# Entry
Amino acid sequence: MQLKEAAPTLIRISMSLVILWFGINQLLFPQTWLGFLPQWISILPIEPTTIIITNAISEIVLGLLLLLGFLTRFVALILSIHILGIAISVGYNDIGIRDAGLALATFSIFLQKPDKWTIDYKRQKE
# Structure
């Protein structure tokens, strides 16, 4: 495999592992993440911990889909919008800048065709 061919696979797998880490961490330690919720969440009739756990499950499912390369472009678009929303919500600080970079990296996956190590690529060949 040439380096040029490896780049899309590397970014997809790397981003999926980052998303999975965040999702699993939120699921195991939801209380730790409560401070990251925006203030307006308090007006919702849902417990903040429930929001964290729901987000965690979503990130785990989407992270697995991205890792497997199933619905790759759609999942990458959803994740990039989600992460960009977090970056905007957090604001201009080290976490916001980091999340903006993660959103752009995930968006770059959306812009590419599925790499040859994805389920999507295998399905196109059939």
